[in-house]
Amino acid sequence: MDIHLGIPEAKRQAIAEGLSRLLADTYTLYLQTHNFHWNVTGPMFNSLHLMFENQYTELALGVDLIAERIRALGMPAPGTYSSFSKLSTVAEIEGVPPAKEMIGILLKGQETVVRTARQLLPLVSEVGDESSADLLTQRLQVHEKTAWMLRSLLE
Q1: For the chain, first and last CA: distance in Å?
Q2: Could you name the CATH architecture of 9-154?
Q3: What is the Cα–Cα distance from 1 to 41, expressed in whole angstroms?
Q4: What is the mean pLDDT of each run of 10 residues along the chain (155 residues)?
Q5: Residue 106 per-residue DSSP state
Q6: For 28, what's the count of Cα atoms within 13 Å in the CB-facing half-sphere?
Q7: What gap in Å lies between CA 18 and CA 1, rounded to an integer?
Q8: CA distance 9 to 5
């Protein structure tokens, strides 16, 4: 079925590809945050356990919004570990690092997601894709604020 959204198909495809990278980064960060929520230990256990829970819950909502935008553009959303591992630029961590290292790892992940989202803004602006621009702006606000909070824990 033809899609008539006022965005040429090639541009919709390019936006969907960028959003797919954002989805993969966000999902990888979600898994990492959930893992750290389960496995954090030490004197900051309670505060970090709760903070990580809030973060992975927000990330779970984010992945759904990103995937649904990809679908609204008429493209399939990636949804497998294999596709996410090929698309993601968030570094996957093996093992269970100490709590302070977890904070630093999650900070790097949040900043990676910010950069991935920001790279897509010129394209969506070029074609007047306000819906994708709004989604990206909202994701940037969430990830920049979370990065600031994590960074503050390390000072």
Answers
A1: 54
A2: Up-down Bundle (1.20)
A3: 52
A4: 83 97 98 97 96 98 98 96 96 93 98 98 96 98 98 95
A5: H
A6: 29
A7: 23
A8: 9
* Residue that has been written with the tokens 């006022």 in this structure: 6
- Please check whether residue 50 is in contact with residue 112, taking contact to mean a CB–CB distance below 8 angstroms: no
pTM: 0.95
The type of residue at 103 is I
* Cα angle value 64/67/70 (rounded, 5°): 150
Q: Retrieve residue 105's tokens.
A: 């790892």
C-alpha span between 145 and 130 (Å, rounded):
22
Rounded Cα distance, 114 and 23, in Å: 12
Which residue do the tokens 């990278």 mark?
21
Give the DSSP letter of residue 93.
-
Residue 5: its pLDDT value, please?
84
Place of tokens 């990103």: 66
* C-alpha to C-alpha distance for 106 and 90, rounded to whole angstroms: 10
CB of 69 closer than 8 Å to CB of 135:
yes
